[in-house]
Each structure stands twice: as structure tokens, then as C-alpha cells.
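Hi R.,

Here's the input for the adenosine monophosphate complex you asked about:
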Amino acid sequence: MNKKTVKDIGIKGKRVLMRVDFNVPMDKGIVTDDKRIRASLPTIQYVLEQNASLILMSHLGRPKGAGFEPDLSLKPAADALSKLLNKPVKVASDCIGPEVESMAKGLKPGEVLMLENVRFHKQEEKNDTEFAKKLASLGEVYVNDAFGSAHRAHASTEGVAKYLPAVSGFLMEQELEYLSKATMNPERPYVAILGGAKISDKIAVIENLLTKCDTLIVGGGMANTFLAAKGYNMAESLVEASSIETAKKILDNSTEKLLLPVDGVVGNKSDATAQTKVVDVDKVPAGYSMMDIGPKSIDKFSQVLKIAKLVVWNGPLGVFEDPRFSEGTFAIARLLASSGATTVIGGGDSASAVKKAGVAKQMSHVSTGGGASLEFLEGKILPGVAGLKDK
Ligand code: AMP
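And here is the predicted structure with adenosine monophosphate in place:
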């Protein structure tokens, strides 16, 4: 990665304004999963060790953008951080304004201030210049560690970087380093795996990855549309009729690189207790949907994955939330865990799938950003990264 990090500029004794992704799940004012907070701890701790003062900003959920909403306050996240750091974390009542300014400027070295949800102001998502300037005025240096929000051109992710020396945090650095392996000089053989529900969301990723990887494995609901494009009758399976023509074109241009399932586990959609069956892709029974890849497909994909040096995976290979249809996804997850390949897992559902399979720790990298990692793999330049200083 060619972006400067917080280690590349002097921050000793400075006021550091840092964008984090504390968009964490909460229940009745308590953080129920602090993974995203922990992910930014190395950067937070480094800043504090430099005797800098730290002003943290984040969004949480989807406020209306019309002022404070108690359910979407970042106070519980600040409390969770305070426990992890074992030191107090001050909480501002807003993210801009005279009171916040005097709190920020009054911070002593090593003190931490959490700003309120930046999305309480509609100017955040509009990337409003004046709002970005007000945020920027709170710090002397800007650090972006919010990879999960880096695909959004918002005031706290993109706007602020125009008004302060802007560098990346360590989480951002790690995300970019691993995801760059998929797009620049990848180790070979390089296998990409794409799954998930819809092909229409991922056409740009398919097209970009096909120019980079040696083999592209497609599973999940997406594969159904490809199989329909090949002329198979997919019965009640999730097939996107509007994407069949695109799928045909992709298949015509990449027959050798693209691997599709040869069998699958079908289920009766309207009856959760109905029996499931394993069938070849040309024998999906009437009334049934293809919900997972089958044993022959697992075997076929394994042959390629066994010799891969780099594997990038985005999207589950079946409806893994339902134990009847999780084996395909979990079997591939286990295989990756025991392979010697560099394994990079996109965020969102793929991250929860490897976690559910119990092998998240064995992966080289599990991204914290679903949408951001997908846009990165599409080959887009992320706005939250573009404005950071080059090395
Ligand atoms: P995405 O957000 O596009 O990555 O889609 C993830 C969702 O795709 C998960 O909730 C899976 O249950 C769903 N999915 C995976 N395989 C299939 C399938 N064969 N049919 C329908 N949905 C699927």
C-alpha cells in the first residue's frame, strides 16, 4: 500500500482526529459485539502512546440526520472502548459546535474524546464542505481507520481529508494490504470465490476479478443465474431473469476460468420441514430451489483450491444460515483453513460464514468491511482512501 500511516508523520503531543467504524450492534444501550472497536485498538493505543490527544468520530446506524436520537448515541461504544483501554473516554454531546470545540481543544495528552454520531447531521452524508471544515477544525492531524466506511464519500471519511494532513490507521493499512493482494501482482495460482444471493450486485466484481485471477469459482444464488444462462431448468431457484444475458456474455468470454457447481442441495422453499435432496444441476425437480452446492461441486472446487496460493472469497455458497444448506459453505471454509494459501475473506456474510464454521482465526485476513471490500475488488478507488497522503 502506498498510503502514509499514522507512523509516517509526527503526531507527538498533537490533537489527532480519527475516523473509526464503531457502527456496532447494541441492545438496550450495551454493545453486543465489540469486534469493530477492538479492530481499531492498535491505532488508538499507538496514538495515545505518542502523548497525543485523541478525538474519535464514527457513525452508528441510520439516523434521520435531524439531530440527536438517543437509540443511536455512540455513548455505549465509548463505554465499551473505555473498558478495553482501561481509562476514561469522554463523550461529547454532538460532533461540531462551540462546546465540542472547547472539549476537543481542552484535551490533555493521552486523553480520549468520543464525538456523537456524525450522521445526526444530514451534512455528513452530503459531504458538505462547511461541515467537513468544522470537523477538521477539531484536530491537527486526520487518521482514517474506518475501512468499513471507506467506500462512502462522506464528510468524516472523505471531506475532512482535504483540510488536515491525512493518513491511514493500522486497520485501514492491513485491509488495503490484504485486499491489494487480490488486485495487484497476486500470488498464483490465484482463485477467487464468489457467492451470495444476486449476480446483479456483483457483475462488476466478476468482470474485474476475471481479469486478475486464474480461476473464478461461482456458487450461491449467483450460480443459479449462470446455470440458467447455460440452459438448465432451475425450477423455483433464485434466478435473476434480467441478468441472464449478461451471464451468457461472461460465460462466452471466460469458459476456461469460470467454475460452476455441478450439483446442489435443493429444498422446497415454502416448506421449511420438507426433505432436501442432492441433485445434479440438470435435474432440479419442479417446485424445488437450489440452496447449496453439493458434494460433487465441493470436490470439484477443492481440486482447484488445494493448489491455490491465494484465495479471495466474497459471498456464501449457499443459504448457510439454515443448517440444511450450510455444508457447502462450511466445507470450503474448512478447506481454506487447512490450506497453506493466503486467504482473504470479504466482510459481511462471508465473514459471518467463516466465523460460524469456526475457522475465522485460521484465515489470513477477514475484512471488516463488506461493501468496502466489494467495491475494492471491483477495482474502484475508495473515496476514504483516495484523500490520504501517498508514501
Ligand atoms: P450477498 O449479500 O449477496 O453476499 O448474499 C448473501 C445471502 O445469499 C445469504 O443470506 C445467503 O443465504 C444467500 N444465498 C446464498 N446462496 C443462495 C441460494 N442458492 N439461493 C438463495 N439465496 C442464497
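One thing worth noting: The chain has a mean pLDDT of 95.

Cheers,
M.
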